[in-house]
Amino acid sequence: MQVSCRFYNFLARTDAYEVLSDSTPEVGVLDVLKLKQIKDFIEENLAEEWAIANLAALVSMSQFHFARAFKMQVGEPPHRYILQRRIKRAKVLLKVTRFSSAEIGYQVSFSNPSHFSTQFRKLLGVTPKQFRDSV
Prior knowledge:
Layout: H1 2-20, H2 32-44, H3 52-58, H4 63-74, H5 78-96, H6 101-107, H7 113-124, H8 128-134
């Protein structure tokens, strides 16, 4: 329930900006401010599982237009961006904590240790244990 409250609080801040803004952005365009809001929201809630529909709702766009606009602005689809941000956070946790790789996987929202290890290895070429041992 706490996540839902954060989601709606963030959504309220986004809507408040649009009401106060003098210029009306084009429909389907992900402007710099909206992109920053999305990226900030993702960083603040990296440990949560989010559907594209939820992220699109933050900026009042359809899922299709949001995914296309996000990819145009960032250079990769939202799902891949979020995955890379989770792996980056996991790398930091592997460096500075002694949590097991399974615990770190759960902290960055992977549903099981095997999936975490597979995605980590796919992106970095090494397993979480190999990464930790090398630093």
